[in-house]
Design brief:
By secondary structure, the chain is an alpha/beta fold. The protein has a single domain, classed as UDP N-Acetylglucosamine Acyltransferase, domain 1, CATH 2.160.10. It is built from four helices and 22 strands. The strands form three sheets. It has a ten-stranded mixed sheet, covered by helices on one side. It has a six-stranded parallel sheet with strand order 5-7-10-13-16-19, with no helix packed on it. The longest helix has 16 residues.
Length: 288
């Protein structure tokens, strides 16, 4: 029976993905509008990088009045989208002010969920998110700038006006979890006051490596060249560049590091930013 259930689940995921797997490229509509451009510039992108994508509105089927309500989907050259992407989703079809920009194919995603008006999603070029879930609520944003690699089944969730911004060159191991909110209210039993924050903002700077099943919560700002250890939980706070963050909650175990996508055996010749990390002829195994 477990094998049958696994087969059924795989079939369900495959059926869901067919909602956005493209048979061909539908990139023949209007160019990026000034309003949508300004929205994503305000979220941390630049006009130059948006222009370089040669974005055009997706030429797919839209429900009546959908574009009139300010919703737009833009594709970079060579990126396709199923014509039924909007009409197949009852929730997406009824929204307003949604902006989705796809600079990479999303056929590997398990879920792209838009859950409220004025949601903004940008998946930049060279992004690969196999079996991942990307959720964006009303007035919230998910921006993956460029070269974001998640090995398997990452989960991103921005809601209640929250924001997730991942700068260029991210390496995320399997089943990372990045969420601006707890998704439910924790209340004072006597007064009814909410105790947990909502609408957090998460920023991952350039060149951040998240270990397997690590968790990044609302309010976390992780600076460039940093590494988050396996199953560590990074809470709200600012963490300096070149940090190794480990534990639950995560602590700074070391600073002054960088990392490479290559599985090198020695680091004596590894190129480093000038003046940041001293050369070392041997691999340091003190932090795992």
């Amino acid at each position: 029976m477990p094998r049958v259930l696994r087969t059924l689940r795989r079939a369900a995921r495959a059926a869901a993905r067919r909602l956005w797997v493209a048979e061909g490229v539908q990139q023949c509509g209007e160019p990026l509008s000034p309003e949508i451009r300004a929205r994503f510039v305000a979220l941390g992108l630049t006009s130059d990088e948006l222009d370089a994508l040669d974005l055009r509105e997706a030429s797919i089927r839209y429900p009546e009045g959908w574009r009139d309500r300010g919703n737009r989907i833009y594709l970079a050259a060579g990126v396709g989208l199923n014509p039924e992407f909007v009409t197949a989703s009852a929730e997406l079809g009824g929204l307003s002010g949604v902006a989705i920009v796809l600079g990479s194919p999303i056929d590997g995603l398990a879920v792209l969920g838009i859950h409220g008006d004025d949601a903004s999603v940008f998946i930049g070029p060279e992004c690969w998110l196999p079996s991942a879930q990307v959720h964006c609520g009303g007035g919230s944003s998910v921006v993956l700038r460029r070269l974001v690699t998640c090995t398997f089944a990452g989960h991103l969730d921005a809601r209640n006006g929250g924001a997730i911004f991942a700068d260029t060159d991210q390496l995320w191991a399997s089943r990372v979890y990045i969420a601006t909110d707890d998704m439910h209210s924790l209340l004072d039993a006597e007064t009814g006051a909410r105790l947990n924050p909502r609408g957090g903002r998460i920023r991952l700077a350039r060149h951040v490596w998240l270990g397997q099943e690590s968790v990044v919560l609302g309010g976390a700002h992780i600076a460039e060249d940093s590494v988050v250890g396996m199953r560590s939980m990074v809470r709200a706070g600012s963490y300096p560049e070149g940090s190794v963050l480990v534990g639950t909650p995560a602590r700074i175990a070391r600073t002054g590091v960088t990392w490479s996508r290559e599985d090198v055996t020695g680091i004596a010749d590894y190129p480093r930013p000038a003046g940041r990390v001293a050369p070392n002829a041997a691999v340091d195994n003190s932090v795992r």
